[in-house]
Amino acid sequence: MIKFLDLQQINKRFETEFQQKFQQFLNSGHYILGTEVETFETDFANYCGTKFCLGTSNGLDALTLIFKAYLELGILKPGDQVMLPANTFFASVLSVIHSGLHPIFIEPERDTFNISVKDIEKQLTPHVKAIMVVHLYGQLANMEVINQLAEKHKLLVIEDAAQAHGAVFNSEFKIQDSELINQKAGNLGHAAAFSFYPSKNLGALGDGGAITTNDIVLFETIKKLRNYGSDKKYEYQLKGFNNRLDEVQAMFLNVKLKYLDADNEKRQTIAKRYLSDISTNKIALPFYDGSKNHVFHLFVVTVKDRENFVSYLKKQDIETLIHYPIPPHKQKALVSFNHLSLPVTENIHETVVSLPMSPVMTEQEVSKVIKAINSY
Ligand SMILES: *Cc1c(COP(=O)(O)O)cnc(C)c1O
Fold first, then answer.
1. Which keywords appear in this protein's UniProt record, sorted alphabetically (predicted)?
2. Whose CA is closest to 259, among 3, 12, 2?
3. What is the Å distance from ligand 1's center to 59 Cα?
4. Which of 181, 224, 340, 348 has its CA 20 to 30 A from that of 248?
5. Catalytic residue numbers?
6. Tens of pLDDT along 24-61?
């Protein structure tokens, strides 16, 4: 059986290191916002190339804290509109709504699955104050053009980088001398949120998240907000929350961060094999320029008769998943948005299938998936 993603195998690789670190952690006697979180924040900021990083309880809280901090600072006002791709994971939308802001769903580009710049331009009004990009499936959005647009219209750019740890911007979009070239996800807008949910490219063994930014005022505000509104024990400047990253999860992340680049390269190698060796025209393969700007959190194909395809692969002992079966605007929780018609997004949700993809997949497993698909 070829698993979609074998989390046990992924983490088993670090068993000895985890055990050694746990012994130190136990003996430290310091279990909240201690040296593990501090080390992770320094190292992850360095990794992303940003000045600041703050660990958070999870990815949803990381996104929400960014919006709440901008509201706290008066840079956003309640009811302001935030554009975001209509085909995203539900949590991206929740962060906007829970912050008292209004989501504007923008259709994606068909080839990259990422937010369409043309549609942003078409739907831009003075009510829109921010764009949330989601580097969906691990591929960076068209940041150069989005940032230019944002600068022109004085909009905030927030990255939902929950699927794109380690993705590097390149010249794919043919704009030379861009200051973004060689910058990583997390350093491509005003602020970014990451999730370390176990299945992400950098995954904890439980919940975790982080915010990266170069903005010291935003950083200081979020630092308070995630810790009851306080940066000094028993003194509260803001009405904050408990949204801290746990020490134990930071400990796991400190071990695993060292292996993130190698794991992403493994994913890119598998993606390249899928792209070169899958030869049937019954499925459509994803766009990939061969660079580091896609870290293949997911390898997503589209197929018209999805049910057949999925059950065919299942019979061949190959597990697949669907990311995602129902778009946010069609969810029961968002009844006031259910009337929206977003045909590109809806078609994507009806046809996508995610193939097995992980840094612990063997060459033989990849070959087996390719062979099965080619005889579909
Ligand atoms: C995983 C994910 C989130 C939410 O992260 P959690 O840590 O599960 O809260 C948000 N946005 C995207 C795109 C994600 O993939």
1. Aminotransferase, Pyridoxal phosphate, Transferase
2. 12
3. 5
4. 224
5. 200
6. 999 999 999 999 999 999 999 999 999 999 999 999 99
Q: Are residue 267 and residue 235 in the same domain, yes or no?
A: no
CATH code for the domain of 335: 3.90.1150.10
Residues ≥6 apart with Cβ < 8 Å to 144: 169, 173, 175, 178, 180
Q: Is 89 in the pocket of ligand 1 (CB under 6 A)?
A: yes
Going from the Cα of 212 to the center of ligand 1, the distance in angstroms, rounded, reads 15
Query: 280 CA distance to ligand 1 centroid (A)?
Result: 32
Sign of CA dihedral 320, 163, 59, 24: positive
Write the pLDDT tens digit of every residue in 284-336. Answer: 999 999 999 999 999 999 999 999 999 999 999 999 999 999 999 999 999 99
213 Cβ inside 6 Å of ligand 1:
no
Q: 352 lies in which domain range? A: 260-374
Phi, psi of 154 (to 5 degrees): 55, 50
My answer on whether 284 and 249 are in the same domain is no
Q: Are residues 238 and 269 in the same domain?
A: no
Distance between CA atoms of 199 and 206, rounded to whole angstroms?
10
Domain final residue, candidates 223, 257, 291: 257
Q: Which of 5, 195, 244 to mutate to test the pocket of ligand 1 (most atoms within 8 A of CB)?
A: 195
Query: Is the CB–ligand 1 distance for residue 195 below 6 Å?
Result: yes
227 and 142 in a single domain? The answer is: yes
Both structure tokens of 202: 């950098």
Of 195, 227, 257, the residue at which a domain comes to its end is 257
Question: Are 64 and 213 contained in the same domain?
Answer: yes
